[in-house]
Amino acid sequence: MALSPEIIEKINNSFKAQSMMRTMGAELSQLDTGLVTLTSAIPESCKQQHGFGHAALTFGLGDSAAGYAALSVMPVEAEVLTSEMKINLLAPAAGDRIEARGRVVKPGRRLVIVQSDVFAITDDQEVHIAIMTGTMVPIMPK
Amino acid sequence: MALSPEIIEKINNSFKAQSMMRTMGAELSQLDTGLVTLTSAIPESCKQQHGFGHAALTFGLGDSAAGYAALSVMPVEAEVLTSEMKINLLAPAAGDRIEARGRVVKPGRRLVIVQSDVFAITDDQEVHIAIMTGTMVPIMPK
Amino acid sequence: MALSPEIIEKINNSFKAQSMMRTMGAELSQLDTGLVTLTSAIPESCKQQHGFGHAALTFGLGDSAAGYAALSVMPVEAEVLTSEMKINLLAPAAGDRIEARGRVVKPGRRLVIVQSDVFAITDDQEVHIAIMTGTMVPIMPK
Amino acid sequence: MALSPEIIEKINNSFKAQSMMRTMGAELSQLDTGLVTLTSAIPESCKQQHGFGHAALTFGLGDSAAGYAALSVMPVEAEVLTSEMKINLLAPAAGDRIEARGRVVKPGRRLVIVQSDVFAITDDQEVHIAIMTGTMVPIMPK
């Protein structure tokens, strides 16, 4: 289902307002209803001690992809907060870029359950580096 | 129990080698056996869309504090990897600085179970902003 | 803070209405504001293949202890549902009985964040067998 | 890939040795490499206070399905332990039966990452009631 221009604008504005996303070199590469992908080329400033992408980079991209997936199924006036998120790390964040694909598992008025899968991509090869499951909370204006 | 100079040096070197920690403005403010605290003044570059610290900042500090707590109880030649981590966010990361206190719940040769509590601090007032529980895996040289 | 007689009665009635708790041999052994303990002698019917208590027994006691801890801080007309729960298992459920101590970390109108610690007890010796963190959702009558 | 007769026998024997699974009315309804399904008709003895299946029933089935999925990819002499498991509950366990489908996300010598999806089924209709992600640890004989 195509997203409305208002929702697309809201998500783009929110994304641009997050300095952490800029610092992480993140781009919004897919934006569909309940399905959002973020991509990053793994900046030098976001690495761990062995030169791989830091777990906080993987987490930040996966959390934001899932959060925007949740926002895409909420009313246009809603904001969203992460309430909880679990990440299982499967492999090092090593590659040309990492891609976090967030999706809505169960929408709801009070809670939205989400998942993200994160991949490290080199040329055409994908390695699954993390799975994440969490809870997003819609915040409505008073 | 006091840490050996070798372990202290190993943790300091590892910490300095993580560009993500520099980007997050993190400092190692406590380093004891099974107990490590990281502090950050919440840099402008690590915020979410409402001006609070990003969840990835809270996660990154809590994860690293817990990882170094685990490293502090391992043999000096060991490295450590996060296998999984869950975060429950309790309040916005708003304040003069945030402080992540990681500790070892159960040491082990194969797995080390850890927890972190993260606080936002303004003057002398602390707000508990996140609780984290995870699994660290010791990596021994071959 | 002492619980009101209405809340105590509500929790006792709810507890008795859970056939799973009877099957698990569970007893409500402590009931305070934001703090509830359940105890079980590990029935023969709730074991895993090596004769220890099953992870579902540990989970069930810890989840219910945390749920009743949450219920103890809600209005008397509220019900409670577990939204999510994570368990880290630290040791086998072996001993004379297991004890699950649930507590409220952060109360709230929409979400209540809880933790449980579960212990296996033999004579006077306690072994910490599980840590749990989760989210409870208050359900108000319409 | 077809499972060897030895692995099938090992899993069947382990399953029968778990009194908790009998108490939960569980049956091993699918057993493939990295993919195991357990089914239960929701016994009267495993309910919560509103007459739905208890969260411990959902957890127990999902955890065991995932554990046997992990066991199916390990050497025949290995045992398996759950190290950690997170469950997000999506809907009440109401229906004719519940079905837990466990699968291996990432096999490994030290850790096996698993997921389970749990469904409540009435006639031909499925409702997704829980998603679970966890870590299984292979235990080798000494």
Automatic annotation (TrEMBL), chains A, B, C, D:
Thioesterase domain span: 50-123
GO molecular function: acyl-CoA hydrolase activity
Entry keywords, A to Z: Hydrolase
Keyword Hydrolase belongs to the record: yes
Superkingdom field: Bacteria
Keyword Transmembrane tagged: no
Xref: InterPro entries: HotDog_dom_sf, PAAI_dom, Thioestr_dom
Descriptive protein name: Putative domain 1
